[in-house]
Structure formats: structure tokens, C-alpha cells
Sequence to fold (750 residues):
Amino acid sequence: MRHSPRLRRALPAGAMLTAAALTLAACSGQASGDEAADGPVDLRMVMWSSNEAHHAIFDEIADAYVAEHPDEVSSVTFEPLTGSSYINALTTQIAGGDAPDLAWLGESDAAQFVRSGALYDLSPTLESTPDYDVDDLLDGALEVWSKDGDIYGYPFSNSPFGIYVNQDLLKKAGQPDPRDLIADGDWTWDRLMEVAAATAADDDAVAGFQTVVDPYTAWNNALGAMWMSWGAAPWSADGTQCTFDSPEMVEFFDWFHDQIFETGAVPGPGEEYDFASGQTGMMLAQLSSSASLGEDFAWDFVPLPAGPAGTVPVVGQGGVGVISQSDHPEIAADFLAYFTNKANSELLAQFFPPPRASLLTVDTLGAAAPALNEEQIQGTVIDQALEAVTKPGHIKMSELGDPVRADLDALWVPDGDAKTVLSQVCADIEPIIAGG
Amino acid sequence: MATATTPSPAAGRTSRRGRPGGSRPARIDAAFGMVFAAPAVLGVTAFGLIPFGYVIWYSLHDWNPLIGQFHWVGAANFQRLVTDPVVWGSLWTTLLFAGLLMVLNVTLALALAVLLDQRLAGTGAFRAVFFSPVVVSTVAWVLIWNYLVASNGGINGALAAIGIDGPNWLRDPAWALVTVVVIQVFKSVGMNMVLFLAALQTVPGELKEAARLDGARPGRVFRSITLPIITPTILLVVMITTIGAMDVFVPIQILTEGGPGRSTTVISYLLYRTAFEQQDFGYASAIGVLMFLVLFALAALQWGTRKKWVHDEV
Fold:
């Protein structure tokens, strides 16, 4: 058979394209072959911690589960996806057809994962697990992890926000100890900022108050635990109406703006300070931040102060759920029930405050934060966790983050006007959240 | 019995025209060429052409991997793209970023190359100094600069020492983009400097000498002799710098996250946020197609106009 010259030139290129396509097809074929395999399966959970001690506890629980269920599960792998882009990395795995079986999620993302159907319904599994004792879970702890009465995630870490205090810096600035202010009934956000401003006043290398993450980019994680004390919320309870422009929210942002540009209590945008290095008077953070604090300076961990709407204890949560697109959701749900049962919750409590009332004791949590004393654990962690509300997210949280951040940037200048900026925020996000 | 062999007409034509595929050695050469080119062709196909085909396919769908949603929407993503002010704002920011970076980078690289082409003591050490950022991890480089350009960082500290109140480099919309450009220029100028240096060393010394004998001053020698001869390298540098600038991502992600406002939201960063934060992979793919078209147009423009300014191009 004789081919035209053009065809002869095209044939090698076509052969190469075909070879490349076949190579890719062969690669994907291997994956699908694994899915169809019978026998015990390998489970994989992604998590944002690479802490070796966390992994040791997780592995200990997983090894015990595998030993008890050799016919169902051959191994459980805990894969750390660290960094600020954790959710993006998780989404990439799902998009690439390589969804993990289980995932660790924060409370801000819970609503989106639960309500979009990305998580598998755990209720049947948890209800059929002997001694799981769902009634032991704190009121409200499962709120953001539930939909229509069914449970889609378990918040194994239920950690209250509090205020870390650098006692040395406050003392040096001649400021009162926050514990004295608490005793006097004078522990308010206004008073906190007065102390912070005075602490930072005479030293450019010292900041008065900071949040554990940057308020100018991570607005919800940084400020969400504060504006609740103003009775403010970014959107209505059902998530369908923007309330950034509500009087309470405007009042809160006006106040926070003043702390940056009027009193100097809060470092401005672009300024870098580190509480653990002794550069900041006070910091809003959770229990886990105590792990990075040594004995370089005297410090304390006290409950959140009161705002215009009173004192509102707030928890941030780390939960675990089964990804709907997992190859083995039923087996993964069974492992999750084992991973979070009462006995294993006590093991996890070495690092994560549990949402179980029976485990909220000084002895249990003392192991989680050995740097904290009994008064700090009881007053700032346990007492707060029992009454706390969970920092809310939104079903479209991932779509809201950037537009709100971009609009709020107009506020983070000396002449920024909260009312104008927050009206613009609502104008921009209402089309997104309309219809929830 | 002896037989006479008559060449076929086709073989005769092949031979007369000297076509490479006509003789056995030429066919062997062609086969070897194919073998050597195969890895590159396979790589470009597997990791370039096929994925780009998928991107076009995805851009015609509404795809949210979080919930396993993937359905055909035709040109809807492109219709949305045409009316999306955020996309066009990002495109303008990207062109501004690329233009600034290209001009600064090429000018500085050429100036450094000319300086370091002189036979002076210590030029080897300076070449190493200027090239060293190229081999530093981009993330490490950007993180260090993040501290330096903080409003209470090292640069403003140094400026304050001489009585200057420095700006908030990354938080002031008027400065943020320029700051990122400068950080990126310092990171990559060494590579272009080396390319220019290599080009400068190919300029025949006798041509410059002849010009000098004719009375040309150094500036005139550079403009009329050196610059025209290295224009092929300038074309190469302009093209790779422009393409690299249009793809910029890491400095934006680490330094500004696209802010303040959207003043540093370049198109590649918008694509990333749309896909991986908002899980809108179909729309992100449409942005990717737009990005490809813009890059293709810029590269075509540079390539198409080369005959007017590149030496020896006909």
C-alpha cells in the first residue's frame, strides 16, 4: 500500500499521540482496577496536621481498628496536607478522581461540605455503634456538622477561643493583669484594647493586640470570634441574607478600625509581630497555640472579654467526615465511628478538647496543654466549651472569602468608612448567597 | 541471463529533487531524528497538548468536583467571562504586571550584562552574586522579601534611619504591584543577564574596533554595532520574560493574595482561586483558555514583528 508524502509525515506524529494517549489511559486503568478489588481495603484520611505526636495517636487508633477488622480494612493512612491551601489541596484530590476516604475539616468549611453533599451521612453508622453515646456530645457541638437531623461530621476538636496575655509586657507598661480586671468585672473588649494600646505605646517593636491569623486576609477566622460579642453576624441564620451592613456589624468594624488607626492597639495591615517571640501584649487564639509558648516570658490564657452584647464564648472546631466520593464510604464511616468513640475520644483529648461532656475534665485536658495550669483549663477551656457557640461558616464559604476580603481592604486605611465598605460587601455577596 | 534495471519515474523524480526521504541513508537519518525527537514530542503531547484539550473540554462544562457535578453548558462559561469585570480587571493587571516586569527586567539585565562584560577585576564574583537568586527557591526568596517589605520591616527601618517614612509596600494599592514586580525582577534578572552576556561575547571585536577607528563614541558603538547584533537574544529574552510574567503565581499567593482590593489579582491567580477555592472548575478552565489566547497573541505579535527589528531576520 502506498501513502501520500503528507500522510507518511503525519503517521509518526499520530503514532506518538496514540502512544501518549494509551500511556495515560493505562495509568488511569490501573486506578480503576484497584477500585474493583475485593477483600480488605486501604483507607486514607487527609489532615492538616503534620505533628508527629498527632500522627502517633491516630496510627495507634487505626492499628487497633485494623487488628479488629482484618477482613474489612488492611491499612489506614493519614496523609498531611499542610499549609494555608489545605482545602484547595483536598479539592484538587477530589477533582483528580483521587478522593480520600476521610478528611479533617474546619468549622468554617463544614457548612459547605455538609450541605453540598460532599460528606457521607454518618447517622446510621453512629446510631448502630454500641456505646457511642451520642447524648454525651455537647449541645450545639454538632450544629454545623448536621443537616436535616442527620450527622455528617464529628468535631473531635472543640476548642474555645481565649486571650493569651504576655504578662511581662503588660507589667512593663504598667498595665493591670487581666485576671484582676476579670475579678473586678471590668474585662471588656474596650478595656482590653486600652491595655493593649498602652502596652504598645512606647515601643515600636511591640504590638498591643493581634489575632492568631491575619485579620486583613483571613477575616472570618480572625474576627468571627470577636464580632459575636457585638451580637453581629455576617449573614442571616439561614445564610440567605447579607448582614454585614447591620448596625451591630458596622459598630464592630468601626470599633476595630479605631483600634488600628486611632488607638494603635492593633498592628496595621502589613505589620509583622509574633506573640510567641514576645512581641505582642495579647493575642486571640485557641488552646493549641499554647504548644508554641515556652518560658521566655510569663504568660496567661484568659476567657474572652465582654462586648456590647455581653460575653459570648466561641469555639473553633476540627471535625472529621467521610467524603461521599470515597470508594469505600461505608467502611470509612465504620472506622470514623471507631476513631471517635468514647474510649478513643479520650486518647484524642491528649491534643484536642473533645465535644463530650464526660471528657471535659482538668485531668483529661491537662495532657492536651501541659503548659496551661488548672485555673486556665477550667476557666478558659472547660467552662467556655460548655456554653460556647461554634464560629459559623456558610454553604458558599469558598465563594465568599475573596470578594469580602477584597472589599474590606478599602476599610483598612486611615480614612476607611465601615458603613460604606460594608454596604459594598453586601452588594457584592448578595448575588452569591441569594438562595443559600 | 542478464537483465537491465530501469529506474522507475517516481524514483527518478525523487532523486532529482534530492528529497531527504528518497535515499536509504536519508531515511535512516530521518528515523534517528524521529527517535531523538520522540521523548520531547511525547512529553509535550502528554503534559501539554492533551491537558490543554481537556481544559477546552472542561470549559464547556459546569464542573464542581466537590459534589461530583459535571454537565455540559456549551459556551455559557465564555458568555459569563465576557461580562465579568473581575476577569477583565485581572487581565489588565496581568498586562500591567507583565509590561512593567519585562521592561525593568530586560533593561536591568542588559545593563548588568554590559557592565559585567568589561574586563575588570571582580566581575566573576559579581556575575555569581547577580545570578545566585535564580537558583534560590522562589518560595524562600519571596518569604524573605515578605519580611523585608513589611510596613515595619527591614526596608522601612533603613529608610526611617535616613529620615524617610517608607510606604506600606504590600498594602498600599499604589505600591503593591510595583513591589511584587521588583521582587520578581531581582529573582530572575540573573538568568537574562547571563543570556545577554553570552550574546555580547559573540559580537566581533573587529567590528567595534572599526567603528571606533571611524570616530564612533562608545554609546554609538553600542547602539549601532552591539545592539543590532544581539537583537535575536533580545527577542528570546523578551518572549520568555513576557510568558513567565503572564504566568506569575507564587509571589502573588505569598505576598498579597491578590490584594489590596484586587490590585495584584493577576489572571493566573484568579484562575487558581476560581478553580481550587471556589470549586468552579468549568469557569476556571474558560479563564485558562482566555489566558492561552492572550499569551498566544502576545507571542505571535513579538514573533510577527521580529523582521522589523531583529538582526539577520528575513
